[in-house]
Amino acid sequence: MSKRNIVLFGPPGAGKGTQSAFLVKRYGLVHLSTGDLLRAEIQAETPLGLQAQEVMSSGELVPDEVVVGMIKNRIDASPEAQGFIFDGFPRTLAQAEALDNMLQKIGKPISVMLSLEVEEQELVKRLLNRGATSGRTDDRSEEVVRKRIAEYRAKTEPLKSYYEGQGKLRKIDGVGTIEDITRRLTKAIDG
Ligand code: B4P
Questions:
Q1: 8 Å CB contact between 22 and 182
Q2: Catalytic residue, candidates 74, 108, 130, 140
Q3: First to last CA, the chain
Q4: Is 38 in the pocket of ligand 1 (CB under 6 A)?
Q5: Is 130 a catalytic residue?
Q6: Which of 41, 38, 36 is nearest to 16 (CA)?
Q7: pLDDT for 47-69, tens place per residue?
Q8: Cis before 90? omega within 30
Q9: CATH number at residue 75
Protein backbone atom coordinates (compact mmCIF):
# COMPACT_ATOMS: atom_id res chain seq x y z
CA MET A 1 0.00 0.00 0.00
CA SER A 2 1.22 3.48 -0.77
CA LYS A 3 2.24 5.77 2.03
CA ARG A 4 -0.65 7.81 3.36
CA ASN A 5 -0.73 10.59 5.87
CA ILE A 6 -4.16 11.53 7.13
CA VAL A 7 -5.24 14.45 9.30
CA LEU A 8 -8.39 13.50 11.21
CA PHE A 9 -9.94 16.81 12.09
CA GLY A 10 -12.95 18.13 14.00
CA PRO A 11 -14.11 19.84 17.18
CA PRO A 12 -13.70 18.24 20.63
CA GLY A 13 -16.06 15.28 20.81
CA ALA A 14 -16.45 14.92 17.03
CA GLY A 15 -15.21 11.30 17.19
CA LYS A 16 -11.56 11.68 16.18
CA GLY A 17 -10.17 9.32 18.80
CA THR A 18 -13.03 6.86 18.29
CA GLN A 19 -12.62 6.69 14.51
CA SER A 20 -8.80 6.67 14.58
CA ALA A 21 -8.89 3.26 16.25
CA PHE A 22 -10.69 1.80 13.19
CA LEU A 23 -8.65 3.60 10.55
CA VAL A 24 -5.33 2.60 12.13
CA LYS A 25 -6.31 -1.07 11.93
CA ARG A 26 -7.68 -0.91 8.42
CA TYR A 27 -4.83 1.01 6.82
CA GLY A 28 -1.88 -0.05 9.02
CA LEU A 29 -1.08 3.53 9.98
CA VAL A 30 0.78 4.87 13.01
CA HIS A 31 -1.65 6.73 15.28
CA LEU A 32 -0.40 10.06 16.63
CA SER A 33 -2.83 11.72 19.04
CA THR A 34 -1.46 14.78 20.79
CA GLY A 35 -4.24 14.47 23.38
CA ASP A 36 -3.14 10.88 24.20
CA LEU A 37 0.54 11.86 24.24
CA LEU A 38 -0.18 14.75 26.63
CA ARG A 39 -2.30 12.55 28.90
CA ALA A 40 0.58 10.01 29.03
CA GLU A 41 2.91 12.83 30.17
CA ILE A 42 0.40 13.82 32.86
CA GLN A 43 0.10 10.22 34.01
CA ALA A 44 3.89 9.91 34.26
CA GLU A 45 4.03 13.23 36.16
CA THR A 46 6.79 14.62 33.93
CA PRO A 47 7.54 18.39 34.06
CA LEU A 48 5.84 18.71 30.65
CA GLY A 49 2.83 16.81 31.97
CA LEU A 50 2.51 19.05 35.02
CA GLN A 51 2.56 22.13 32.79
CA ALA A 52 0.08 20.60 30.32
CA GLN A 53 -2.36 19.47 33.00
CA GLU A 54 -3.17 23.00 34.09
CA VAL A 55 -3.72 24.21 30.53
CA MET A 56 -5.83 21.20 29.53
CA SER A 57 -8.07 21.35 32.58
CA SER A 58 -8.89 24.98 31.75
CA GLY A 59 -9.93 24.01 28.20
CA GLU A 60 -7.17 25.99 26.50
CA LEU A 61 -4.59 24.78 23.99
CA VAL A 62 -1.13 23.63 25.06
CA PRO A 63 1.67 25.83 23.56
CA ASP A 64 2.55 25.05 19.95
CA GLU A 65 6.23 24.30 20.62
CA VAL A 66 5.31 21.57 23.12
CA VAL A 67 2.99 19.64 20.78
CA VAL A 68 5.15 20.21 17.69
CA GLY A 69 8.17 18.81 19.58
CA MET A 70 6.20 15.74 20.65
CA ILE A 71 5.02 15.04 17.10
CA LYS A 72 8.49 15.55 15.64
CA ASN A 73 9.95 13.00 18.07
CA ARG A 74 7.31 10.45 17.09
CA ILE A 75 7.76 10.95 13.35
CA ASP A 76 11.55 10.66 13.71
CA ALA A 77 11.09 7.45 15.71
CA SER A 78 8.97 5.79 12.97
CA PRO A 79 11.01 5.83 9.72
CA GLU A 80 9.38 2.57 8.54
CA ALA A 81 5.79 3.79 8.97
CA GLN A 82 3.35 3.16 6.08
CA GLY A 83 1.84 6.50 7.02
CA PHE A 84 0.45 8.41 9.98
CA ILE A 85 -2.96 9.35 11.22
CA PHE A 86 -2.77 12.71 12.97
CA ASP A 87 -5.58 12.90 15.55
CA GLY A 88 -6.14 16.28 17.20
CA PHE A 89 -3.07 17.75 15.51
CA PRO A 90 -2.60 20.29 14.00
CA ARG A 91 -4.83 22.65 15.99
CA THR A 92 -3.32 26.02 15.01
CA LEU A 93 -1.90 27.50 11.83
CA ALA A 94 1.60 27.41 13.32
CA GLN A 95 1.19 23.66 13.99
CA ALA A 96 -0.08 23.03 10.44
CA GLU A 97 2.89 24.84 8.93
CA ALA A 98 5.33 23.03 11.21
CA LEU A 99 3.78 19.69 10.20
CA ASP A 100 4.03 20.49 6.49
CA ASN A 101 7.72 21.36 6.97
CA MET A 102 8.45 18.14 8.83
CA LEU A 103 6.69 15.99 6.22
CA GLN A 104 8.27 17.85 3.32
CA LYS A 105 11.71 16.94 4.70
CA ILE A 106 10.87 13.24 4.59
CA GLY A 107 8.98 13.48 1.28
CA LYS A 108 5.63 12.26 2.70
CA PRO A 109 3.10 15.10 2.53
CA ILE A 110 -0.43 15.01 3.97
CA SER A 111 -2.70 13.08 1.56
CA VAL A 112 -6.07 14.18 2.92
CA MET A 113 -7.68 16.14 5.74
CA LEU A 114 -10.92 14.52 6.90
CA SER A 115 -13.09 16.97 8.80
CA LEU A 116 -15.79 15.46 11.04
CA GLU A 117 -18.72 17.88 11.13
CA VAL A 118 -20.88 17.85 14.30
CA GLU A 119 -23.11 20.56 15.84
CA GLU A 120 -22.19 22.09 19.20
CA GLN A 121 -25.24 20.75 21.08
CA GLU A 122 -24.30 17.16 20.15
CA LEU A 123 -20.63 17.74 21.06
CA VAL A 124 -21.53 19.02 24.53
CA LYS A 125 -23.83 16.05 25.08
CA ARG A 126 -21.15 13.51 24.04
CA LEU A 127 -18.37 15.07 26.10
CA LEU A 128 -20.41 15.49 29.30
CA ASN A 129 -21.55 11.91 28.88
CA ARG A 130 -17.93 10.74 28.65
CA GLY A 131 -17.07 12.97 31.63
CA ALA A 132 -19.70 11.15 33.68
CA THR A 133 -18.32 7.70 32.79
CA SER A 134 -14.54 8.18 32.41
CA GLY A 135 -11.72 9.73 34.36
CA ARG A 136 -11.26 12.66 31.99
CA THR A 137 -11.51 15.78 34.14
CA ASP A 138 -11.72 18.11 31.10
CA ASP A 139 -15.02 16.43 30.14
CA ARG A 140 -16.73 16.99 33.48
CA SER A 141 -17.60 20.67 33.45
CA GLU A 142 -19.88 22.21 30.83
CA GLU A 143 -17.94 25.47 31.15
CA VAL A 144 -14.65 23.77 30.22
CA VAL A 145 -16.29 21.81 27.39
CA ARG A 146 -17.72 25.02 25.90
CA LYS A 147 -14.35 26.75 26.31
CA ARG A 148 -12.69 23.93 24.30
CA ILE A 149 -15.28 24.32 21.57
CA ALA A 150 -14.73 28.11 21.54
CA GLU A 151 -10.95 27.55 21.26
CA TYR A 152 -11.65 25.22 18.34
CA ARG A 153 -13.81 27.81 16.54
CA ALA A 154 -11.24 30.59 17.07
CA LYS A 155 -7.92 28.82 16.48
CA THR A 156 -8.48 25.43 14.89
CA GLU A 157 -11.45 25.67 12.52
CA PRO A 158 -9.62 28.18 10.25
CA LEU A 159 -7.30 25.31 9.29
CA LYS A 160 -10.06 24.01 7.03
CA SER A 161 -9.28 26.90 4.66
CA TYR A 162 -5.57 26.10 4.91
CA TYR A 163 -6.11 22.52 3.71
CA GLU A 164 -8.86 23.53 1.28
CA GLY A 165 -6.27 25.80 -0.35
CA GLN A 166 -4.11 22.70 -0.83
CA GLY A 167 -7.09 20.77 -2.28
CA LYS A 168 -7.03 18.28 0.64
CA LEU A 169 -10.18 19.09 2.68
CA ARG A 170 -12.96 16.46 2.77
CA LYS A 171 -15.97 17.21 4.98
CA ILE A 172 -17.57 14.17 6.60
CA ASP A 173 -20.94 14.14 8.39
CA GLY A 174 -19.97 13.11 11.94
CA VAL A 175 -23.51 12.35 13.16
CA GLY A 176 -24.83 8.80 13.03
CA THR A 177 -23.66 5.45 14.33
CA ILE A 178 -19.91 4.91 14.78
CA GLU A 179 -20.06 2.29 11.97
CA ASP A 180 -21.81 4.73 9.59
CA ILE A 181 -19.11 7.30 10.14
CA THR A 182 -16.30 4.77 9.68
CA ARG A 183 -17.88 3.86 6.32
CA ARG A 184 -18.02 7.51 5.27
CA LEU A 185 -14.37 8.00 6.22
CA THR A 186 -13.09 4.89 4.43
CA LYS A 187 -15.06 5.88 1.32
CA ALA A 188 -13.37 9.29 1.35
CA ILE A 189 -9.92 7.72 1.83
CA ASP A 190 -10.36 5.01 -0.81
CA GLY A 191 -12.18 7.25 -3.26
P1 B4P B 1 -8.05 15.58 22.63
O2 B4P B 1 -7.51 14.45 23.37
O3 B4P B 1 -7.69 15.72 21.19
O4 B4P B 1 -9.60 15.42 22.87
P5 B4P B 1 -10.94 15.85 22.16
O6 B4P B 1 -10.76 17.00 21.23
O7 B4P B 1 -11.89 16.02 23.28
O8 B4P B 1 -11.45 14.69 21.21
P9 B4P B 1 -11.40 13.11 21.37
O10 B4P B 1 -10.73 12.61 20.15
O11 B4P B 1 -10.83 12.64 22.61
O12 B4P B 1 -12.91 12.67 21.47
P13 B4P B 1 -13.78 11.90 20.46
O14 B4P B 1 -14.14 13.02 19.55
O15 B4P B 1 -13.26 10.66 19.86
O16 B4P B 1 -7.65 16.97 23.34
C17 B4P B 1 -7.76 17.20 24.75
C18 B4P B 1 -7.00 18.49 25.14
O19 B4P B 1 -5.57 18.31 24.90
C20 B4P B 1 -7.33 19.76 24.37
O21 B4P B 1 -8.46 20.43 24.90
C22 B4P B 1 -6.01 20.57 24.51
O23 B4P B 1 -5.92 21.23 25.75
C24 B4P B 1 -4.92 19.52 24.47
N25 B4P B 1 -4.36 19.31 23.11
C26 B4P B 1 -4.44 18.16 22.38
N27 B4P B 1 -3.84 18.31 21.18
C28 B4P B 1 -3.37 19.60 21.14
C29 B4P B 1 -2.70 20.36 20.15
N30 B4P B 1 -2.38 19.84 18.96
N31 B4P B 1 -2.38 21.66 20.45
C32 B4P B 1 -2.69 22.18 21.62
N33 B4P B 1 -3.34 21.52 22.60
C34 B4P B 1 -3.69 20.23 22.37
O35 B4P B 1 -15.02 11.36 21.30
C36 B4P B 1 -15.76 12.08 22.24
C37 B4P B 1 -16.93 11.25 22.80
O38 B4P B 1 -17.92 11.09 21.81
C39 B4P B 1 -16.55 9.84 23.25
O40 B4P B 1 -17.15 9.59 24.48
C41 B4P B 1 -17.11 8.94 22.17
O42 B4P B 1 -17.51 7.67 22.67
C43 B4P B 1 -18.30 9.72 21.70
N44 B4P B 1 -18.62 9.45 20.31
C45 B4P B 1 -17.74 9.30 19.28
N46 B4P B 1 -18.38 9.07 18.12
C47 B4P B 1 -19.73 9.10 18.42
C48 B4P B 1 -20.92 8.94 17.63
N49 B4P B 1 -20.88 8.69 16.32
N50 B4P B 1 -22.11 9.04 18.25
C51 B4P B 1 -22.19 9.28 19.59
N52 B4P B 1 -21.09 9.42 20.39
C53 B4P B 1 -19.88 9.34 19.81
A1: yes
A2: 130
A3: 15
A4: yes
A5: yes
A6: 36
A7: 999 999 999 999 999 999 999 99
A8: yes
A9: 3.40.50.300
